[in-house]
Amino acid sequence: MPTDPETQPSFEAAFAQLQSIIAKLEEAELPLEEALRLYEEGKRLTAICAGILDNAQLRVSALNDADTNAVQPDGERE
Amino acid sequence: MDAFDLNAPLVFSVTTLNNYLRELLETDEVLQDLWVRGEISNFSQPRSGHLYFTLKDSEAQIRCVMWKNSALRLRFSPADGMQVEAHGAMSVYPAQGQVQLYLDALRPAGEGALYQEFLRLKARLEAEGLFDAARKRPLPSLPRHIGVLTSATGAALQDILHTLSRRLPILRVTVAPSPVQGIEAPPGIITALRQLNQIPDLDLIILARGGGSIEDLWAFNDENVARAIFNSRVPVISGVGHETDFTIADFVADLRAPTPTAAAELATPVTAQELSLSVRAASEELNTRLANLLNSARQSLALAQAELRRGSPRAAVQNALQRLDELHARLERLMRAQLEARKIHLDNSLRHLSALSPQAVLQRGYAIVTDQLSGALISRAAQTRPGQALQLQLQDGLISAQVSATPTGVPNHANRP
Fold first, then answer.
1. Single pTM value for the model
2. Partner-chain contact B186 A39, CB within 8 Å
3. Which of B215, B252, B257, B310 has the smallest number of CB atoms closer than 10 Å to its CB?
């Protein structure tokens, strides 16, 4: 199923979050309960990232043709 | 009659003159199919799309017109100062009495003329700093939104979209179509660049065109196109023509790719496949870190348990019990020793006692004397009287005896005959 760009976080955002969680898990002072919560969140983000990559389809749109044709040669020149 | 003078001069109207002249020009075979070489000046291209300019050399000049339908077929952008060869037919523009050349073809003059023009422009823009390496912007390693500026109908667009889709399908792509050859190409490219720059989140622009002749690529050697690339807020990758083609656009662009496909590849240095590997690695890292945390938590727990054991009453109780066992053992040892000592003492006492017993005395030769009748112990002679039956206990038995004399009972004894 293609991902919905409106509701789905971007790959970059999800991956950045995942990496910050991994960094946090390295802190020695982390309470175990918090670590487990971060781990669950990390697993969830991993699934999101993999899902985005697996389901991605290039989203192509074009600028309005009418705009492109409304070129004003005189205006572009000196 | 002098009303009709055969020698009087013929007077034309202006219109008749211009028509006559036009007829003259348009019936001349040479003037209807000719090539002229010269330098362009006073070039203008109004909105109508027709081209107007003057061709000149050092001695003379002539007005030229090229209608839009011919101008659209041009493979380069004419400009003032350019040496060209023009093909067309001579005629008159009656409204101004202007003799002019109506062109249907235009080409850069002479072999290498375009290349000379290219070199001149390149040197000028280079001197101005448009190609400076220092001003080239770094390209995003993971772009999200890429603009593709090329012909809507060219193979280059399909090549680029195919490559982007294969390498990084999470991308958003905005196609800005523009003519990429002919006289409409430079203004089209400039407008498309401006429109793409208005997209706030655009990370990168690919400016591309498939291979073609040097004339085909001429829009990418246009000075205004070069300046538009230079002024682009969004970094530009150029991918024009083939590997061997270098255009001014390539020099100004932040990165030059040899082909449109290569431009799409350079635009996506990190592929979705590599991202997948990164995600997998991150997932494993996540597992490792949690495992490490759990291990260290377990170790801490073990340490804490050991600590707890050391301080717990259970240990104290166990210690006390052990001490108690030790004391108990010691007590038993002492008791046994005491009993042993008492027993020895008792034995001694018993021995001593037995030495004092009558029996022991009897064994030493004494006898216990009792009255045979009363059983009373006789310890004094005075207790006896002659004739009294006594019992003597010796060490090995009793014997009976009779008192024959007593110290006081001698008479008794004397009484006897």
1. 0.58
2. no
3. B310
